[in-house]
Please model this.
Amino acid sequence: MEQRDGHIFVVGKRKRGEAATSERAVEANPEKIVIVGGGAAGFAAAEMLRREQYAGSIVMLSDDEAPPADRPNLSKDFLAGKAPESWVPLRGESYYSKNQIDLRLGTQAVRLEPRTREVILAGGDSVRYDRLLLATGAEPIRLTIPGADQPHVHTLRSLADCQAIIERAATARRAVVLGASLSAS
Ligand SMILES: Cc1cc2nc3c(=O)[nH]c(=O)nc-3n(C[C@H](O)[C@H](O)[C@H](O)COP(=O)(O)OP(=O)(O)OC[C@H]3O[C@@H](n4cnc5c(N)ncnc54)[C@H](O)[C@@H]3O)c2cc1C
Model:
């Protein structure tokens, strides 16, 4: 295949297993890995890449404002007031700069362009990659029933959600928990 004027042309059949020289170099030795998602999975991948001596560039994009966090703590010791906030982040802020992990918080990926190997961000900027890891996790099911949008109804997912619940619990007299799995216990 060839790219000209923004179009892709099929120019012949490539032999099985054969890749263009530049593609082969990138396949064998990616210079830049972009991770979309700032949860435990994205963090673990970035940490392991550095531990295994990956020397290229690592960019982590997260639409959360807080760095990768120990979410289980948000429904346990931190929520109960038995752990300080410093226990919540998986690593301190300096970890990322020391390990040359370009952590970009409050940054939402809205589109992928696999052909040009780019992640398009809300706001229109783009980030190029040689390898892309999608570690975007899961979102809680937010109720759409009447009343669910009231300010005293919370979803427990992020550090900000947990802080809001703690604040409300200081004066609340009764709480109702919807959901009966790990986070609720
Ligand atoms: C309150 C709570 C308590 C829990 N307790 C336990 C427990 O006790 N035991 C247990 O095993 N598990 C527990 N879990 C589940 C556990 O935390 C998850 O399994 C784990 O967080 C999954 O990690 P992840 O990285 O795959 O996804 P997530 O933690 O969901 O992270 C995904 C990340 O991707 C980001 N993202 C998503 N879309 C985009 C986008 N388009 N652009 C940029 N960034 C994006 C999100 O902001 C987030 O940072 C709990 C979860 C919660 C919320």
Notes: Residues 2-139 form a domain with the FAD/NAD(P)-binding domain fold (CATH 3.50.50.60). Strands lie at 2-4, 7-9, 32-36, 57-61, 101-104, 109-113, 118-121, 126-128, 131-134. Residues 36-42, 61-64, 71-72, 74-75, 108-109, 135-138, 156-157, 182-183 surround flavin-adenine dinucleotide (CB under 6 Å). The first helix runs from residue 21 to 28.
